[in-house]
Amino acid sequence: MNLLAWIVLGLLAGALAKAIYPGHQGGGILGTLLLGIVGAFLGGTLALLLTTGSLSLAAPTLSIPGVALAVLGAIIAIFIWHQINGRRVY
Q1: Contact 74/13 with Cβ under 8 angstroms?
Q2: DSSP code of 18?
Q3: In whole angstroms, how far apart are CA 66 and each of 5, 26, 49, 81?
Q4: Most buried residue, 9, 37, 63, 79, by most Cβ within 10 Å?
């Protein structure tokens, strides 16, 4: 996937994950972009692990299922980030 597709996927997945996850997540546009890219790798890797049983770094494509995997991965990344920082989300 080229750089422009990564930016679009990252912004889309990060923004959707921040909208779905309860509470306030700061970070601005750069934080949203990085969250989406981390979520894409996390979602793609988890999907590959569940479907093939092998653990390797993977990323979804810029498609509807790919965006859904990236959003799921970004939500997991937000949850892990809040657990590490010790913030409460209400």
Answers
A1: yes
A2: H
A3: 12, 24, 15, 22
A4: 9
Look up the pTM and report it.
0.76
Q: pLDDT (tens digit, 9 = 90+) per residue, 2-17?
A: 677 777 888 888 888 8
* Domain assignments of the chain as residue spans, ordered by start: 3-85
> Is the distance from CB of 30 to CB of 3 less than 8 angstroms?
no
DSSP-derived letter for residue 53 is S
Distance, CA of 46 to CA of 30 (rounded, Å): 24
Cα(61)–Cα(69) distance, integer angstroms: 9
